[in-house]
């Protein structure tokens, strides 16, 4: 007998299918109809699952959204996400075992493991890592068509992890010597962020942020014609250095209009002993000691590439609307970590101040409260189990992070305190009101009242009145170390 398709067409109701099945019984017989019923049920279950779009920036500090906290920077499309959804105002990266903080952050995100547990699997073989199941593979198992484009920076094979993977990028665009230790003290600067001759984001002829938007729009057009839910992992390299963008975006930010950060320092006092000295690549971007003029130039280019990326994100949001599936699509936006860009005398992200560990994070989706801000602490990697929750996937035992769904429904954060780390050189704990930072190599503790001093400018560690609080927080930090399998011994620093 000729095979016939008795499955439900996209958008058809179960009642419509029932009529088709009644006729099919007469033609095909009960066994084939039972198969068709199961197929229809499976298709309806998959089509009911929400689509998920994850948009990932690189090196974007939490203080770079016009709608939230920085009138200097223009981010109209990210501002729309703030207004349309819920913003987690205190989202953090847990730290890094590598100078390339991106690597640790992204390995944590895609494996679901906390920093030192992620480090433990980082050098595993491909087969061992695949056995542990990556984020995208869990989504595949839930019936999602998975897609990624842009920066990957994990050791796993993205082409195997996703159904579709295009223009898989390395950790950063290729840089040049011209882009370092600039501008000079006399104001001369051979670098131009808009000149294609320096390669970087311009390599290939189209700015890499535009490539992400182009690929994303193409996939969304295709997805609009398909029935299965989609999961998109859209990873911009921007605003990581070399911070390049078209000249029109640079011109939006005249250097004279850029403010010097209030916590600017010519040099951080413990830079060498905490791994942030002149030998660190990120710190070589500007000369030592820092000057306000140098910092303004770097912040000009930082804001320009963020605004350019924002325009590309706007194109992606428009493409989502054009699918006709926006009402059943969740959008998550965050970054892998922040960046100092002149704050505290630092240029990079290899430190535990909020400008370098705290990121923007917005969630938009069906039923998510518009314009809401949640100030309780979370980790950016909590997005991974949140999407598993939405997909109906039971959280695997190895996933250390937590779904944000209970918080979106009004419950408190599962985290009492936030842990921070960098190599074996820095550790921190952040409570609602204070942050304690430990520098083992320098034998230095720093304490900030982040509630009253959000820019972390007034170190209270030497104030005798702070001793009881330091003792309490130090003990809590050691508890977190044990919980997170952190083997750095801080005992000799115990106050």
UniProtKB/TrEMBL annotation:
<keyword id="KW-0378">Hydrolase</keyword>
<dbReference type="GO" id="GO:0046872">
    <property type="term" value="F:metal ion binding"/>
</dbReference>
<dbReference type="InterPro" id="IPR017850">
    <property type="entry name" value="Alkaline_phosphatase_core_sf"/>
</dbReference>
<keyword id="KW-0479">Metal-binding</keyword>
<dbReference type="Pfam" id="PF00884">
    <property type="entry name" value="Sulfatase"/>
</dbReference>
<feature type="domain" description="Sulfatase N-terminal">
    <location>
        <begin position="50"/>
        <end position="393"/>
    </location>
</feature>
<dbReference type="GO" id="GO:0004065">
    <property type="term" value="F:arylsulfatase activity"/>
</dbReference>
<protein>
    <submittedName>
        <fullName>Arylsulfatase</fullName>
        <ecNumber>3.1.6.1</ecNumber>
    </submittedName>
</protein>
<dbReference type="GO" id="GO:0005737">
    <property type="term" value="C:cytoplasm"/>
</dbReference>
<dbReference type="InterPro" id="IPR000917">
    <property type="entry name" value="Sulfatase_N"/>
</dbReference>
């Amino acid at each position: 007998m000729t095979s016939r398709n008795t499955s439900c067409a996209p958008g058809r109701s179960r009642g419509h299918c029932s009529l088709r099945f009644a006729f099919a019984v007469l033609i095909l017989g009960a066994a084939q109809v039972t198969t068709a019923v199961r197929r229809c049920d499976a298709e309806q279950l998959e089509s009911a699952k929400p689509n998920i779009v994850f948009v990932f920036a690189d090196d974007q500090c939490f203080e770079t959204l016009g709608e939230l906290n920085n009138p200097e920077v223009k981010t109209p499309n990210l501002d729309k996400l703030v207004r349309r959804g819920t913003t987690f105002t205190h989202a953090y990266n847990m730290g890094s075992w590598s100078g390339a903080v991106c690597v640790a952050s992204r390995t944590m995100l895609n494996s679901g493991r906390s920093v030192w547990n992620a480090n433990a699997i980082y050098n595993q073989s491909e087969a061992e890592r695949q056995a542990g199941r990556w984020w995208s593979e869990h989504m595949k198992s839930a019936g999602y068509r998975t897609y990624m484009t842009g920066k990957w920076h994990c050791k796993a094979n993205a082409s195997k992890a996703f159904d579709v993977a295009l223009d898989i990028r390395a950790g950063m665009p290729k840089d040049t010597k011209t882009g370092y230790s600039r501008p000079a003290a006399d104001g001369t600067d051979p670098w131009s962020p808009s000149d294609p001759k320096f390669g970087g984001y311009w390599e290939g002829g189209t700015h890499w942020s535009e490539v992400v938007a182009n690929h994303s729009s193409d996939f969304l057009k295709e997805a609009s014609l398909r029935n299965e839910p989609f999961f998109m992992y859209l990873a911009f390299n921007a605003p990581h250095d070399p911070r390049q963008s078209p000249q029109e975006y640079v011109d939006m930010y005249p250097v004279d209009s850029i403010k010097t950060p209030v916590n600017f320092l010519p040099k951080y006092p413990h830079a060498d002993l905490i791994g942030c000295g002149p030998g660190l690549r990120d710190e070589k971007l500007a000369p030592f000691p820092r000057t306000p003029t140098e910092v303004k130039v770097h912040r000009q280019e930082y804001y320009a590439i963020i605004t350019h990326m924002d325009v590309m994100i706007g194109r992606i949001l428009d493409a989502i609307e054009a699918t006709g599936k926006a009402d059943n699509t969740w959008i998550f936006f965050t970054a892998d970590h922040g960046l100092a860009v002149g704050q505290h005398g630092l240029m990079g992200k290899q430190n535990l101040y909020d400008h370098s560990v705290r990121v923007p994070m917005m969630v938009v989706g069906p039923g998510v409260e518009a314009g809401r801000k949640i100030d309780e602490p979370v980790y950016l990697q909590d997005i991974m189990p949140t999407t598993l929750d939405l997909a109906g996937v039971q959280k695997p035992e190895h996933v250390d992070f937590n779904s944000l769904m209970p918080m979106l429904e009004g419950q408190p954060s599962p985290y009492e305190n936030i842990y921070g780390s960098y190599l074996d050189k820095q550790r921190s704990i952040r409570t609602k009101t204070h942050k304690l930072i430990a520098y083992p190599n320098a034998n230095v503790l720093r304490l900030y009242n982040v509630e009253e001093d959000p820019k972390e400018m007034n170190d209270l560690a030497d104030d005798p009145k702070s001793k009881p609080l330091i003792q309490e927080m130090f003990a809590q930090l050691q508890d977190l170390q044990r919980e997170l399998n952190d083997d750095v011994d801080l005992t000799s620093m115990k106050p």
